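Sequence in, structure out. Go.
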Amino acid sequence: MVRVLIADDHEVVRRGVRQILQEYLPDVNLGEATSGEAALEQVQNHEWDLVILDLGLPGKSGLEVLKQLREAYPRLPVLVLSMYPEVQYAVRVLRAGAAGYVTKETASEDLLKAVLKVLHGGKYVSALLAEKLALDLELHTQGPPHEALSDREYEVMLKIAAGSSVKEIAYQLGLSAKTVSTYRERILLKMKMKTNADLTYYAIRNNLIDWNQEKPRPS
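Output:
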């Protein structure tokens, strides 16, 4: 019996992953968590063979949860399933200890392939990402400036670059506007930039923005 925890705050996503796994893994035992805190509690209280983790969880972000899991349960594989394109987060989560990264647009066959590979102790990335990683290694390229940002700074940078205001970002991340403004100042300093427009231009040039992502607004 394989025990898999699905940590995602969207019921449609959890239901879809559940159906895919139950179809191909008839003996699978599935659990669910709808927040970062709930995911950590589930892992503390139950044994799992795999955690399928969303990055955009309410409360603790998926990256925070990933790092805590890697520290407390280093042998528990975590497969990140995210709405964000690989170019935005894949390298960062792999460096943080994830066993693989797939997007929510991934075909069911590829998701199953990722799950099976991770369950057998392997690492999973798409062919496109593997090619990019190999090319970066071959060229010995210095990391781009955004890789010097902390996970939270990087998250805020992407939202600023996509046009979100300080108030909107504060609402989306559960932070105060003052805290977001402080992050913005740090980001501009580290990136050696002066304005939000500079960040937007950088993000566009480096293909970090997905303009099709829906941007929630404060009520």
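Check: Residues 177-191 form the longest helix (15 residues). The chain has two domains: 3-126, 145-205.
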